[in-house]
Amino acid sequence: MVMGEAQLRERMQHPVIQERLVVTPLLSDAQVKGASIDVRLGTDFILMKRSAAGPIDPMAMRTGVLDYQERARVEVGEKMILHPNQLVLGVTLEFIQVPRDLMAYVIGRSSWGRLGLMVATAVMVSPGYRGSLTLELANLADTPVYLYPGTRVAQLVFHQVDGASSAYAGAGKYTGPVGPEFSKLSWDEDWQAIQRMQPEEM
């Protein structure tokens, strides 16, 4: 069941901190409306290096992540250009705390989508998540588009979780960030097994 505005506001004022939905700071009361909460684009970004040597190797990410990325900061009032077919990682201005009985989907705002901007290709926010949300921002249009930190770029739609949830409990790969985080695909246990199967280089 999708939570409506009244339910969202009630959970955001819940007296028990473990059951309270936290989305802060809210710069406008209008960010909570209908059945969603609007979130704004933060000031920190991760850009993929166009000069990276060779393809991205998910297995080498733990030690070679700086070979593929560089960080940038764009203050509120400034703008950053996103070129066609370019992917950058942004972050929400807001810090999110999701109770264990809720989960959320991140959905790009249609006003941005009509300009060719795809937001949050990884769309689920797990029960118990705490931190700012990394946003995958991709320009699918044929022309560049400017990104403005501080503007509403996506919305969170919350659902009640049926049954008990073990949640993140602080052990998730992306728990507690306050800035954008690069892929931690290499942290998956699957990669350790795959690595053992690879033939040794002569």
Strands, helices and their partners?
Layout: H1 5-12, E1 22-24, E2 32-33, E3 36-40, E4 44-48, H2 61-64, E5 69-73, E6 80-82, E7 87-91, E8 95-97, E9 102-108, H3 110-113, E10 117-119, E11 124-125, E12 130-131, E13 134-139, E14 145-147, E15 152-160, H4 189-197
Antiparallel strand pairs: 1-8, 2-3, 3-15, 4-5, 4-7, 6-14, 7-13, 8-12, 9-11, 9-15, 10-13
Feature tags:
single chain, 202 residues, mainly beta, Deoxyuridine 5'-Triphosphate Nucleotidohydrolase, Chain A, five-stranded antiparallel sheet, 15 strands, 12% helix, globular, nucleotide metabolism, dUTPase_trimeric, dCTP_deaminase, EC 3.5.4.13, hydrolase
CATH level-four homologous superfamily name: Deoxyuridine triphosphatase (dUTPase)
CATH-defined topology: Deoxyuridine 5'-Triphosphate Nucleotidohydrolase, Chain A
What strand order characterises the main sheet?
2-3-15-9-11
The level of helicity is: 10-25%
What pattern of helices and strands is seen along the backbone? Answer: HEEEEHEEEEEHEEEEEEH
Instruction: Please give the CATH class.
Output: Mainly Beta
